[in-house]
Amino acid sequence: MMMIKFILIFQESLKSVLSYRLRSFLSILSIALGIIGVTLVVGAVNGAYQKAGQILSMFGPDSVLVFGGTQKNQATGFRTKTLTFEDLYAIRDAFPTAYILVPMSARGDIKVSYKGNYVKTFVVGSTEGYSKSWTWDIYEGSDFSKEDVDKAVRKCLLGSYVKDQLFLNEDPIGKYIYVNNFACQVSGVLEERGISNFGVNINDRVIIPITVLSKFITGDYKYITAMRIRFEDVENLNNRIEELRQFLRYRHNLGDGKDDDFTIVGPGDILKFFVAIGGALIAFLTIITLITVSVGGFVMANLFLISVTERTKEIGIRRALGATKRDIFLQFIFEFFIITLLGAIVGFFLGSAMAKIISSFKVFEVVISLNIFFISIIISGALALIFGVAPAKKASEINPITAIRS
């Protein structure tokens, strides 16, 4: 009997939602705006952690990246030329478990052209094994060799973006492109990576022997920008990083009290960075979302309070026909639940559509999952309970005689 009564009250609530279309539309819209915020917030956090996983996977759990200069030096533009080729050779001799060790120097905004097509791109000078050091497959052609590096043979690997811009549908292998003003033969094309570093396309690069970079672009035969090292004994990576730090301090004559003139980055540092960024992102976006959802709830509550006043006579008639205070209270609570549920569904789908649009710009990924839908439903239910009680209570306490006379 009680179940039948609940069903009848629910049906009455549904009729009211359909009858007062403008109020229902505005209420659904106010809730939907809040849920759009929730969808984008949770999706952005999911995307940030997915990005962290991709970058950590790309970086490698056995890998270390050493830069010349400190992070403070790099930020303020002070001298960062502290790593040398001699450092590289010394590390190779001192660390037998370093199974991959490659130097890197780079220049940005370099014009690269083929026939009538050209791009301004990032040119990296390195040695054979650069792609292996980053677990980056060569899907066309092959890597340049140690002999190519030693003899400064003008060969190159293309990032997939550069290949697409210069060659369109033409096979690039064996063709000559111009890097600045010198010709360079394409030996291979790197596999496309679906990762961008905060809007920077990592496929937008050309890799050449570091000796070619020194000879034709930088003129620097002593210093390198960075080195990439991979160790066999990954379980001892933290120990290797500290040993490497002490080794470079010794080579650079850095006594007690002197800061490192280099920066070592390991997988743990990247993880800490993303945890910090993720925490800040969650805190900021959560505050924004709470504000948005709360505003939506207040708007809806006020609309319902106005509706109670407008429906005074209707409420009085229902009471006169036998409806109890509890019935009226439940009717308005059900109306609130129906509207917040519809708002959650509309908000989720609109938020998902906006997430696709945002992700299409390749600045950062907004990842939508089914969990977000359930979170939206839970939030909508909470809104109904928090903001729906006051209007429902007001409606249930209306005096039926006074209401009918009005």
From TrEMBL:
**InterPro entries per UniProt:** ABC3_permease_C (IPR003838), MacB_PCD (IPR025857), Macrolide_Exporter_MacB (IPR050250)
Its chief place of residence is membrane
User: What does the entry list under GO cellular component?
Assistant: plasma membrane
Where does the record place it? Cell membrane
Bilayer-crossing regions: 274-307, 328-350, 370-390
Which Pfam family, just one, is annotated for this protein? MacB_PCD
Q: Which UniProt keywords apply?
A: Cell membrane, Membrane, Transmembrane, Transmembrane helix
Protein topology in the membrane? Multi-pass membrane protein
Show the GO MF annotations.
Answer: transmembrane transporter activity
The UniProt record lists the ABC3 transporter permease C-terminal domain at 287-400
Domain MacB-like periplasmic core: from-to ranges: 24-243
Protein family (similarity comment): Belongs to the ABC-4 integral membrane protein family.
Instruction: Please give the name of this protein.
Output: Multidrug ABC transporter substrate-binding protein
Q: Which organism is it from?
A: Calditerrivibrio nitroreducens
